[in-house]
Amino acid sequence: MSYNLLKGKKGIIFGALDANSIAWKTAERVHEEGGTFVLTNAPIAMRMGQINELAEKTGSQIIPADATSEEDLQNLVEQSMEILGGKIDFVLHSIGMSVNVRKGRPYTDQKYDWTQKGTDVSAMSFHKVMQTLYKADAMNEWGSIVALTYMAAQRVFPDYNDMADNKAYLESIARSFGYFFGRDKKVRVNTISQSPTPTTAGQGVKGFDGFISYAEKMSPLGNATAMDCANYTITLFSDLTKRVTLQNLFNDGGFSNMGVSDAVMDKFVE
Ligand code: NAI
């Protein structure tokens, strides 16, 4: 159902790789709600992914940008303002990657140049995106910036590996930059902490299948889907959440406040 919540709003959406991507679902929902946007992804991901199909469906243009490159980001922001005809109202940072996770390197045996690459892509890129927008004065007042995160930033999930540290860093950047963006430009910055979701990035985590079933059984409302995340993000981009900022918001069916559930207990008393 569409409520026209984003009518007239303009934005940039990072990270739509394929139809499973959280950013893909968000782009579709933003389009339904009347928002217009530029799609962006790393040049290599665009060759592998199906982003053209999404662009066509939503009437959007695509600008390639490696989110670790300040030059690419400057170009992206400048071009987006030209294409969209003015300043930006919303930005979704939906980017994550750990080389250690990808190559099966455990947390206790990190290859640090891989660790650094993962931190740059998954966390520091968020600072770079915001600094680029801030310096270019590219955000409209009462605009909204959202990044996606996971609860391993607060609690131990061993197989999440160095992504746990990257997410802790990402959430801290949201608060720290959110202060300056709020004070100087009246822009809000939040992170959504999402349930495990079957996407390319999600399924790269070791033991994902067991883990997603566990989270499902633990959460009173079940796991939040990519579509649930898209819908939550729409509310944060809309004018209905104008003074929500510096928050890490859990979209996880209640998982983060659970100790144990009947469904999980049942497995231990069989
Ligand atoms: P996905 O694999 O569809 O999206 C990850 C995106 O990051 C891809 O589009 C990829 O091309 C992009 N990316 C990687 N390196 C980049 C770079 N250098 N520059 C620009 N883009 C780059 O997976 P998903 O799950 O949709 O991931 C989106 C966000 O959601 C990530 O931040 C992820 O950590 C987060 N998240 C995912 C969960 C899950 O279980 N899938 C749970 C909680 C958070």
Describe this entry's structure for a reader.
- Pfam families: adh_short_C2.
- The chain has 11 helices and 7 strands.
- The protein has helices at 22-32, 43-48, 51-58, 70-84, 99-102, 112-135, 163-185, 200-203, 208-218, 226-237, 262-268, and strands at 10-14, 36-40, 61-62, 88-93, 139-149, 188-194, 248-251.
- A 7-stranded parallel sheet has the order 3-2-1-4-5-6-7, sandwiched between helices.
- The model has no long low-confidence stretch (mean pLDDT 97).
- 1,4-dihydronicotinamide adenine dinucleotide binds next to helix 1, strand 5 and helix 8.
Task: Give the SSE map.
Layout lengths: L9 E5 L7 H11 L3 E5 L2 H6 L2 H8 L2 E2 L7 H15 L3 E6 L5 H4 L9 H24 L3 E11 L13 H23 L2 E7 L5 H4 L4 H11 L7 H12 L10 E4 L10 H7 L2
Parallel strand pairs: 1-2, 1-4, 2-3, 4-5, 5-6, 6-7
Helix pairs in contact: 1-3, 1-10, 4-6, 6-7
1,4-dihydronicotinamide adenine dinucleotide binds next to helix 1, strand 5 and helix 8.
| Residue share in β-strands | 5-15%
User: Roughly how many Å is the radius of gyration?
Assistant: 18 Å
Succession of helices and strands: EHEHHEHEHHEHEHHHEH
Shape: globular
Structural class: alpha/beta
* Helix run count: 11
Which regions are unreliable across 5 or more consecutive residues at pLDDT < 50?
A: none
Bound molecules: 1,4-dihydronicotinamide adenine dinucleotide
Largest sheet: 7 strands, parallel
Task: For the record, give the distance between the C-alpha atoms at the N and C termini, rounded to a whole number.
Answer: 43 Å
| Secondary structure tally: strands | 7
Question: What's the overall average pLDDT, rounded?
Answer: 97
Q: Specify the helix fraction band.
A: 40-55%
